[in-house]
């Protein structure tokens, strides 16, 4: 979450020009991907309606005039449902993690937990779980559900009779 709010502020950091020049010199690419141009106005719009957001289906163009996707699930949820909606979503993800964590002795659960971490990182750059690229999102939900199903199977078969 910190990445989402710190990354757009990097150009205002006093050492940014130094690191930007190094990056350009050695890779030919900028540290900033352009997401900062989208995320900063979206964060400002979220802060205008922080509790409940602007409602489902709201896009950045509706509140900022920018006709691009946020490419960030967490910002999109906060835009549509406010920080309360984002908090509920994070609690859901935390609940999934607790389910996985309590059963990490199983190989399948460990593998799914690893994928789960990767999915959470991926969602910082995409909105696949709920909107864009639903084919990828369905696969990600499938992986999560396989892990939860495995935990339920383990709990059912190891229950004292």
UniProtKB/TrEMBL annotation:
Ranges where the O-antigen ligase-related domain occurs: 26-90
Regions annotated as coiled coil: none
Protein keywords: Membrane, Transmembrane, Transmembrane helix
Record's GO cellular component terms: membrane
Membrane-crossing segments per the record: 82-101, 108-125, 137-155
Membrane-protein topology: Multi-pass membrane protein
Origin: domain of life: Bacteria
Compartments reported by the entry: Membrane
Main location (coarse class): membrane
Protein name (database record): O-antigen ligase-related domain-containing protein
Source organism per UniProt: Rossellomorea aquimaris
